Amino acid sequence: MVKGERKKFQILIVDDEPLIRQSLYEILRIEGYRVQMASSGEEATEIVKNNKIDIVLTDLKLPKMNGIELLTKIKKDSKETEIIVITGYGSIETAVEAMKNGAFDYVTKPINDNEIKFIIAKIVERNRIIEENESLKEIIAKERRSSFGKMIGASTKMQSVYHIIDSVASTNATILITGESGTGKGLVARAIHECDKNRKDKPFVEISCGALSETLLESELFGHVKGAFTGAIKDKEGRFEYAKGGSIFLDEIDAFSPGLQVKLLRVLQDGVYECVGDNVTRKAEARIIVATNRVLTDLVEKGEFREDLYYRINVIAIQMPPLRERKEDIERLVQYFINSYNQINNKKIKGIADEVHRMFMDYNWPGNIRELENAIEGAVIMARTEIINKWDIPNLAKFSAVSATPVSDEKTLKRIVEQPEKEHIISVLKNNNWNRNKAAAALGINRTTLYNKMKKYDISDNGR
What we know:
The chain is an alpha/beta fold. It contains 19 helices and 16 strands. The two termini are about 60 Å apart. The protein has helices at about 5, 20-30, 40-50, 65-75, 90-100, 115-145, 155-170, 185-195, 215-220, 240, 260-270, 295-300, 305-315, 330-345, 355-360, 370-380, 415-430, 435-445, 445-455; strands at about 10-15, 35-40, 55-60, 80-85, 105-110, 145-150, 150, 175-180, 205-210, 245-250, 270-275, 280-285, 285-290, 315-320, 350, 385-390. The radius of gyration is 34 Å and the shape is elongated.
């Protein structure tokens, strides 16, 4: 045992005989421990109350408050403090009683210096092992929490997300996942499902609500019977029926029409629904998880989203942080995507150059993790060495104002055509307060086409 470890330990000697106190004080100080003294149980109690005392070495025979009473009080107020009692040969039974009440060990008078040092060393060594085990547990836990399901990240904000998932997974609560596009809301939903031991082996059903028209979405959710509408040539099972016992994830919940909002509210309130074109009431037995990249309270204020539905889905909320707020995770994410695309493309890329790392850390990542993944996918394909350099990065100009390779001012015909279309779509969406149904109508296209174009141009509600 190194002397530095002993300095961590604060020992209190309690004895009403000054010579014994002083003798023990000198012995333990020479050994490298920090030592205090008290002449009575009352004085010792005050010292323990106001200081972190690791070991109390006390005589059983003290005036007023005896050693057993002192032991009981200290153990009540400071469970971590270990106590060694000192007794005469004629009081061994009292010493045994003290150990039954929580004393670590006892010594008899006349005191053997080596025996005292040996017992204290045992306590110090035991505490060292406990501390090492706790430290190892923390390291293992932190390493384990560098990922969760298919999510990657050890940042404080991601640890908070993992904690909420752990807490709510086994409950029946409806979960609302919010966050910008590309932050991994779908991965959170799947992690919630897979962490629930009662649901993980049952279906996990995901629906991108914004990609479907109102009629198709209602049919997908609740099913339909033959003849319910044009094209309904046979009965169809809905996603709620298929997800029975499992989980249903409704992405882009903001895309629900007022009529569908009412039907979803009924599912959440009463747990029942009807197929399209049918009057038979069915029971919904799937856990509901919803997500959106929009601020639902703003939609509630505009009258575009029912307030009662908002409170029903907002039982437990998980806010996914944007990548710019968790940049300490970028290195882990980069390596994860490199390993993934190495396998897909039969490559052996080992990592990124320091210059690329600096570029990535300086960049704001408006497209979040999805944008980072796309950058790494392209870089792995383009890389000519085992290390990704900045000239391997697609669309390098957006990452750095000064590129290692000159960026041509010439624009391809495709870019010339696409840029005005993107700008026009954003303008129409803004003019319609980002209501996709109204914007699609104004553009003269259906909602699915608008959704696909927004996805193609990476347009989210902030206009990017």
